[in-house]
Write a structure and sequence with these properties.
By secondary structure, this protein is α/β, with parallel strands linked by helices. The chain folds into two domains: 135 residues, Rossmann fold, CATH 3.40.50; 156 residues, Aspartate/ornithine carbamoyltransferase (Rossmann fold). The strands form two sheets. It has a five-stranded parallel sheet. A four-stranded parallel sheet has the order 2-1-3-4, sandwiched between helices. Strand 5, helix 6 and strand 6 form a beta-alpha-beta unit. Helix 1 crosses helix 12, helix 5 crosses helix 12 and helix 6 packs parallel to helix 7. The radius of gyration is 19 Å and the shape is globular. It binds phosphoric acid mono(formamide)ester and norvaline (NVA). The site of norvaline (NVA) has 9 residues, from helix 6.
C-alpha cells in the first residue's frame, strides 16, 4: 500500500506509470454510459472514504464515480459532520477509519493535517487538496496537456496570478515531468523561494516575470486559478483582487501568446475575474477535458495506492 500525498513525494517513474494506467483505462472505457462498470473491477469488495473539510464539486464527484466504475463502494464524509469537526483528533480518526475502509481521500487545510492522517492510517491516504498542494489536479493537467500536444517534457507552463496550492503543485510537477515554468503574479503572492529553487535544482528553467504579456510570449500552456482560495482569509479578498487584476487571462493577453498555446484552469472559475468568458469558452481552452481527466487520473491513482 502506498500513499499519494504529493507530486514531489512520488517517484517520477511512478507518476508516469499512473498516467499510463489512466490513459489505458480511459481508452478501454470508450464512451460507454458513465454508470456502467469498467471491464476490469480492481476495487470490487473495497470501500473508499472521501473526507471533505472544504467544498468540492469535481473532486467529490470524480472520486465517487471512479470508485463505482472500478467496482468499489465509496462514502462521502463532510469534516464538519464528523467528530473530526468536533474535537476528535486526526490521528484517532485515521486509526478508526482504517478499521472500516480500504482507502482514504482527504481534502483539508494545512498539509500537517494530511500528514497526520497518513502517519496514523494503516490504509493508503490520497491528498484531495490542501492549502499547499493539489496533486490529483496536476496529474489530470499533465494528462490533458499530453493528449493535446504530446510529451510535456521541455515545454513551458506560464502560471498567471496567485502562487497558490495549484501553482505549487505545478512547480513540483515541473521537476518531476521535466517542463519549464514561468510565474507571473505580484511579488506578494510568489510561490516560495524554496519551491522554485527545488525545481531549478532539478534542471527546470523557472522564471519570475512580472509583465504578463512577456510571461505568456513563449508559453505552451497558460494556467490560472481563483484569486481567493478556500484556505485564504475572506478579509484578504479586496487586497488580493487589487494585486491580481493585472494578471487576468483575457483575450488581449492571449494575443501575446504563441498560436498553439493551450489554456487551463482547474475550476471552479470566477468568470470575469481571473479569466474571461471569451478565453474560458474559446478555442485554446481545454478546461472541460481537464475536468474529465480528474476521473481517469484518480482511478489510476487509487489502483496504484492499493497495488491493484
Ligand atoms: N478543481 C477542483 O478540485 O474542483 P473542486 O473544488 O470542485 O473539487
Ligand atoms: N486554489 C483553489 C483550487 C480549487 C480547486 C482553492 O484552493 O480554493
Amino acid at each position: 500500500m502506498t500513499n499519494f500525498l504529493d507530486i514531489h513525494t512520488t517517484a517520477p517513474d511512478q507518476l508516469r506509470a499512473i498516467l499510463d494506467s489512466a490513459n489505458a483505462m480511459k481508452g478501454a472505457r470508450g464512451d460507454r454510459p458513465k454508470g456502467t462498470p469498467d471491464d476490469d473491477l480492481p476495487l470490487a469488495g473495497r470501500i473508499v472514504a472521501l473526507i471533505f473539510e472544504k467544498p468540492s464539486t469535481r473532486t467529490r464527484v470524480s472520486f465517487d464515480v471512479g470508485v463505482r466504475q472500478m467496482g468499489g463502494t465509496s462514502m462521502v464524509l463532510s469534516g464538519a459532520e464528523m467528530q473530526l469537526g468536533h474535537g476528535e483528533t486526526i490521528a484517532d480518526t485515521a486509526r478508526v477509519l482504517s478499521r472500516y475502509v480500504d482507502l482514504i481521500m482527504i481534502r483539508t487545510f494545512g498539509e500537517d493535517i494530511l500528514n497526520e492522517m497518513a502517519d496514523h492510517a494503516s490504509v493508503p491516504v490520497i491528498n484531495g487538496l490542501t492549502d499547499n498542494s493539489h496533486p490529483c489536479q496536476i496529474m489530470a493537467d499533465v494528462m490533458t496537456f499530453e493528449e493535446h500536444r504530446g510529451p510535456i517534457r521541455g515545454k513551458r507552463v506560464a502560471w498567471m496570478g496567485d502562487g497558490n496550492n495549484v501553482a505549487q503543485s505545478f512547480l513540483h510537477a515541473a521537476a518531476s515531468f521535466g517542463f519549464d515554468f514561468t510565474f507571473s503574479g505580484p511579488s506578494q503572492l510568489d510561490p516560495s523561494d524554496a519551491l522554485m529553487g527545488a525545481a531549478r535544482k532539478a534542471g527546470c528553467d523557472v522564471r519570475v516575470e512580472r509583465d504578463p504579456a512577456k510571461a505568456v510570449s513563449d508559453a505552451d500552456l497558460i494556467v490560472t486559478d481563483t484569486w481567493v482560495s478556500m484556505g485564504d482569509a475572506e478579509s484578504s479578498r479586496q487586497r488580493r483582487h487589487n494585486l491580481l487584476r493585472p494578471y487576468q487571462v483575457n483575450e488581449r493577453l492571449i494575443e501575446a501568446a504563441p498560436d498553439d498555446a493551450l489554456v487551463m484552469h482547474c475550476l471552479p472559475a470566477h468568470r470575469g475575474e481571473e479569466i474571461t468568458d471569451a478565453v474560458l469558452d474559446g478555442p485554446r481552452s481545454v478546461v472541460f477535458d481537464e475536468a474529465e481527466n480528474r476521473l481517469h487520473a484518480q482511478k489510476a491513482i487509487m489502483r496504484w495506492c492499493l497495488d491493484l
